[in-house]
Automatic annotation (TrEMBL):
It is found in: Membrane. The keyword NAD does not apply. The chain crosses the membrane at residues 6-26, 47-69, 75-95, 102-121. This is DoxX family protein. It is a multi-pass membrane protein. Keywords: Membrane, Transmembrane, Transmembrane helix. Pfam families: DoxX_2. The keyword Transmembrane applies.
Length: 128
């Protein structure tokens, strides 16, 4: 179970780090031009898109660094919980935009993050 949690957290961290950096450094117009999956940025200001990217980068760090450095490891499930909430918001945004296939993807990412929340608060907790 511990290994599965590390693998899921690592994959999520990699995905959110890449996606977050992309949102922080790319202009909003280029994100929108990246295809149908990027049209959600039309619902947000440039600052809002950058803020979402920054939250994703911080969450990616929070999934891994506290446990590896043994500094406040309770932040791991809290970072995962933040991602669950972020992905619920993403799913609502996609649903409002009638992007139903992408809602499923957002909910899948949210479910993986929820698995980390459950595992790190529950059976494989870092909290002693």
């Amino acid at each position: 179970m511990n290994l599965a949690l590390w693998i899921v957290a690592g994959l999520l961290a990699g995905a959110y780090l890449l996606g977050g950096v992309f949102k922080v450094v790319m202009p909003k117009e280029k994100i929108a031009a990246a295809g149908s999956s990027g049209r959600w940025v039309d619902d947000f200001s440039t600052g809002g898109v950058k803020a979402i990217g920054a939250v994703e980068v911080l969450a990616a760090a929070g999934l891994i660094l506290p446990a590896v450095l043994h500094i406040a490891p309770v932040l791991v499930p809290l970072a995962a919980l933040g991602l669950v909430m972020l992905m619920l918001g993403a799913a609502v945004t996609r649903f409002r935009r009638h992007e139903l296939k992408l809602v499923v993807l957002d909910l899948a990412y949210g479910a993986l993050a929820a698995f980390v929340v459950w595992g790190r608060f529950g059976p494989e907790s870092f909290i002693s």
